[in-house]
Design goal:
The structure is a homodimer of 300-residue chains. With 300 residues, chain A is α/β, with parallel strands linked by helices. The first copy, chain A, folds into three domains: 65 residues, Winged helix-like DNA-binding domain superfamily/Winged helix DNA-binding domain (Arc Repressor Mutant, subunit A); 104 residues, D-Maltodextrin-Binding Protein, domain 2; 99 residues, D-Maltodextrin-Binding Protein, domain 2, CATH 3.40.190.290. In chain A, 44% of the residues lie in helices and 21% in strands. Chain A contains eleven helices and twelve strands. In chain A, the strands form three sheets. In chain A, strands 4-3-5-12-6 form a five-stranded mixed beta sheet, with helices on both faces. A five-stranded mixed beta sheet of chain A has the order 9-8-10-7-11. The longest helix of chain A is centred in the first third of the chain and has 27 residues. The relative contact order of chain A is 0.14. At the A-B interface, α1, α3 and α4 of A face α1, α3 and α4 of B. Chain A binds a DNA duplex (30 and 30 nucleotides) through α3.
Chain lengths: 300, 300
DNA sequence: GCATACTGGTGCAATTTTTGCACCGATTGG
DNA sequence: CCAATCGGTGCAAAAATTGCACCAGTATGC
């Protein structure tokens, strides 16, 4: 969009940190770019950059303007998506911020299902922990967030909440399979493979451990759920994950079962969007599909 | 703002209904304007106007775009207002949609009070009935609405609600002043001066009359609250209004007192804004002042 | 049936805006 | 002290926008 060119250039300067670098990125001369910035500031009424000896940085007014620019761009995308929709075209782009647990099975299945009907719709998946996911929504970097146990919940509009019990993962044939109900204390005697503190599963486990007067001392702490899954069979350890990221034990190649609810309270897997935001058609429809899929999981 | 020029031109065409008329309004040639519209449509990807033998009219895509244009413009105004605020300047413009009852005393006082502190802030007051006021908010024509008994309340964010009993107005010395509690039936024997059905007072009276098996047969029906006020003394009639638009009886030049609550339920005077909208600084601050003033009225 | 007054659209030249080039002054780091 | 940055500016070339003259189509009035 031609009339958005000035905004693009401003963003380029913000990214590059100096007019000269931004000029290279945008295939312009520094002088031309300089004058566009100056021209805009004059129209706008206030400077939006601080001129430092090293380059340019947004001043507070510029920060406010950047919010406007981002809103403006996403709202235009929404309009174009709605227009495409009313002329029968089903194009668009859906960006999702999600927890790792959704990556192996749930999201690939859902995306494939959606794209079977709407091949013109493209997706981007941003793996984020629960705090980052919300920031992603707020900065319009993602349309939807599907996260386990988010932290703030301000500015977050919950579309669906699916309870998820924390599952323990262990090698096939482990004695943990035999006890009638899996208690947290049964697990704590084993070597532990835990996600880092940024993750909801770890948070729920910490709360549970504290309430029975124990502390968690992991043998391996990692941000990779994949690593957790694979490591438990290597060292006869116990890992923890939520079931939406797991196949049934008979297919998974390792055993897993939920921890007793009286020990570890179930967490909530939340599908949400930025409060008050009108989503592009494709994102809104995909969100509806996800709600239906999560409902089916809740009451099978 | 130069980069908004295309949007201004589109709006001009929408208003004028044809390129040639819009060209005159915008001091451009029809050909230049024509090509800008065509150029935008090409960039946008779809036509936004229907070409009729009589001129141009927005198509559905154009309607969607107009929403975006309006949002974009008001959001820019918000940013500029916030920027002005952080550089210490207290400029801005506040537009209010309100019922007639606020015109004689309440709003003039409040505006004068605000402008005493912030002379750089200007106001526009749009007198609207309760349905129109909400449409005004939705189309970003007004920042705030102060209305009696609004109808829909979707998209309406209530900032404050002040209960208002319906008052009966009558000439000084009327026997209505003497009864211990003013009942609706006492009034119905007099000649009635009523606002039209668009107004909340009329609505409350209709409900009350129906519930005691009576109907309202006004001698004079008008949209002008001013006329109601002045007419009651002319023909010894009874009118109805809410107290926020009235001076105390001793100053008003006519008598008035509230109707019994068991006959006519009190209505609500609502101060509100469009749900989810971030108001310009001046509007937000004036809104806060109004809330404080209404609170003072509620608990004197 | 035909002139008239509208409408949007287009080729081409004039005009305005934007851009690139060659610089300047200032600051920083080796 | 010099080289490498940075933002900013005068001036001419390049590009976009605009105005003028005109076309084709369609209602309207006589």
């Amino acid at each position: 969009m031609r009339y958005l060119r000035t905004f693009e250039l401003i963003e380029a300067v913000v990214r590059a940190g100096s007019i000269r670098k931004a000029a290279e990125d945008t295939n312009l001369t520094a002088s031309a770019l300089n004058r566009r910035i100056q021209g805009f500031e004059q129209e706008f009424g206030w400077p939006i950059f601080e001129r430092l000896p090293r380059g340019m940085r947004l001043n507070p007014a510029g920060e406010l303007l950047m919010q406007h620019i981002r809103l403006q761009r996403t709202d235009l995308a929404r309009v174009q998506s709605q227009v495409a929709d009313l002329s029968g075209e089903r194009r668009g782009h859906v960006s999702i911020a999600c927890s790792q647990a959704l990556l192996p099975y749930f999201l690939p299945e859902q995306i494939a299902l959606y794209r079977a009907d709407h091949p013109g719709v493209t997706f981007s998946i941003n793996v984020r922990d629960r705090a980052q996911a919300e920031r992603d929504l707020a900065s319009y970097s993602s349309d939807l967030a599907l996260v386990f146990e988010p932290v703030h919940l301000v500015e977050f509009d919950v579309l669906y909440a699916l309870p998820q019990r924390v599952h323990a993962l262990y090698p096939s044939g482990s004695p943990l399979d035999d006890v009638p109900a899996l208690r947290l204390r049964d697990c704590l005697n084993h070597r532990l493979v835990l996600p880092t503190a940024a993750y909801g599963v770890r948070n729920l486990l910490e709360i549970a451990a504290t309430s029975i007067g124990r502390t968690l001392t992991p043998a391996l702490e990692t941000e990779s759920f994949d690593l957790i899954r694979h490591y438990v069979t290597q060292e006869n350890a116990v890992g923890f994950q939520i079931p939406i990221g797991l196949k049934p034990p008979e297919e998974a190649g390792f055993g897993h079962r939920p921890l007793a609810e009286r020990d570890v309270r179930p967490g909530r897997l939340l599908l949400g969007q930025l409060k008050g935001r009108a989503l592009p058609v494709a994102s809104a429809k995909f969100g509806q599909q996800l709600v239906a899929a999560l409902e089916a999981l809740a009451a099978p």
